[in-house]
Amino acid sequence: MHTTDPITRYKVFSTEDLPETSFDDPVTVEIYGRNITWDIEELNGTLLLRGEGCHFPNLKTVKGSLSIDAADCSLPNLKIVEENFTLHCFAQIWGLETVKGHFKCIIDFDFKNLATIGGNISLKKANVIARGKKLVQSRIVIPINHQYEVEFLPKEGVFNVDIFGNDIIIPHYEIRGRINVYGKNVSFPYLEFLQGQINMECRDKTGHYFTHDFPELKKIVGHLRFEKTKASFPVLQEITGNILLEQGCYADFPLLETSGSISVNRNSGVRFPLLRNVNGNIQNQGETCHFISLEKVKGTYKTHQTIAPKIQEVGDLEMHTSLEFENLKRINGRLINAFKVNFKSLEYINFFGDERHNGSQLPALKQINFYLYQKDDHFEHLAKNIYFKINDRMYLSKDKLILSGASFNYAVHQQNYTIRKLVSILKLRHSSFQNFMTREYERQWTRFETPFFTKILEKIEKLWNGVETIQFEEFFESTDRNLRLFCFNYIGVGNLMKRLEAEKINEEEAELNYNEYDQNGNKTQILRINCYEVYKIENKKLGIYTWRETDHYSYAVKCWCPSTEKEHWLWIEQEYKGNALTAIASTFRIHENIIPHIKCLKRQGDLLICELEREITPRGFPRALTASEYFSLLEVEA
Asked: Source organism's superkingdom (predicted)?
């Protein structure tokens, strides 16, 4: 009887590594060395060719699979491959007559003698000829409606089958292919090994009152899918693929120890009393599943409707209820949907620092890989990489700048830049480090009172004089939209408009009384005319692409400072583009209930000072001032 004992594998790097020429049990031979000659006539097993120029002058039969993955190999007398055949590179193999399993060829090739292919044909876009006829990609599926039709299934077990009949018995010990079960009470009494996929569906509207039987199946290399049906796998110990239970299913895996991803949908249940390792994800929306032996989940473990008291290691941990894992030691990914957790045994976590985690109890924690600083956590001394969130679109560490609006868990894997690059961008706006500290850091950056952040500021200062200002072409031609927008903020609207040759679309003038003061402080007013201009620029020049025709342009208003004659540019919304006076007024916004109590407005470029008649608590929604409101309140000093 066939067994599922591990197959002996040989890795060959030189002639001395070649195994004996005869084998009682099937073997797998992987040849990595180049120009190796092996004088055998028959191989009881699988042959994988990864070394170029290998020569098999007398080989006639491969009783397993053959995969040719290196160029210029020679198998001139090979006639039969009893399982699957794969050709990735050119080889001398014109004598091949029969492939009993699946056939895959991704290069143009002429098989002059190939007459029989027992399984699927996969060609991608290759032009493959067999005995003068062009092969076409195909998937052969054998339908089984009655028991007598089972006799015609290939004895070696390489086939795809759709089982429509009820009470069908499939007598094979081993199957390589895809099995679709649509009938009732289908049994595989001797099947021990499956390489492929099993799909079991109930098409009877009355429900799944029957159970499919796999009493001897020990290993599956492939996937399992259930829909409105039941199945039992009493001795299955390993499945390398995934297990999917759609609605209305039940499956029992009393001895299963290792699997791929597990997904259970509504009105379904599954039992895994000995499952220890999941090389994938766990998601359960069905009945509560007790993973009483589970120790490791490589992917995402979603805790909804699950109990796993022995879990020790997970990839991502997505919490749906407040759970305490007594034995959990490692989270190799992210902690998702978690609030103030209590993991007494946790020693390592890859990402940590969400504000929702504040107050978490982690007494055994030894290391954090990526940590977003939170002042009340006091975990920074355990962190390998400490990041600080400067604003909604900027993260900093001791050596990296990340420009992203994503949450920290995801932003840390996005495009990053050096601190040197940050300095080169800061110098677009600031003439010195002190200017940066005064005009930007103290006003706009989040403050972090920790020596870890102080070191970042010290590094910026140290680099300042030795770094050249970033060139316009460098960031404008960048494929990173976040970098472009970040730099646009520093280069200034005016420089951007001039560089990209924006078009003036409106110009208006306004008469204003300028306040002048003599040496004694006496005020006099002089009537002057102020000019305001509106410009538009194509969004595609900014690297911004939109599908709506009305959003093809961005707009800015230009004005001049009366005391310095320096020009200032301010972005405006599209709705204010038609009138320059309305446009400049729209740049001042304040809560509606405050507007009647404004005494005056004073403007210095993009800085606005609002003086109130009395203190007012803001209520309602902020809105832009109208042109008449703005200019009636504006006081200008010469």
From this structure: Bacteria
Residue 134 is inside which H or E element, if any?
strand 133-134
Each residue of 236-258: pLDDT tens digit?
999 999 999 998 889 999 999 99
Distance CA 621, CA 296 (A): 52
Tokens read off for 74: 């020679």
Q: How far apart are CA 615 and CA 550, in angstroms?
A: 41
Q: Which residue has the tokens 């996929």?
A: 197
DSSP string covering 167-185: S-B---SEEEEEEEE-SSS
The pTM for the full model equals: 0.68
Amino acid found at 577: K
The residues, ordered by sequence, that sit 6+ positions from 5 with a Cβ below 8 Å of its Cβ are none
Q: How far apart are CA 203 and CA 164, in angstroms?
A: 10
Question: What pLDDT is attached to residue 79?
Answer: 95
Is 44 within 8 Å of 27 (Cβ atoms)?
Answer: yes
- Tally of CB atoms within 10 A around 377: 20
What the block records as the tokens of 633 is 């309140």
Rounded to whole angstroms, how far apart are CA atoms 544 and 553? Answer: 9
What is the tens place of the pLDDT at every residue in 143-189? 999 999 998 888 888 888 999 999 999 999 999 888 999 988 899 99
| CB distance 131 to 113 below 8 Å | yes
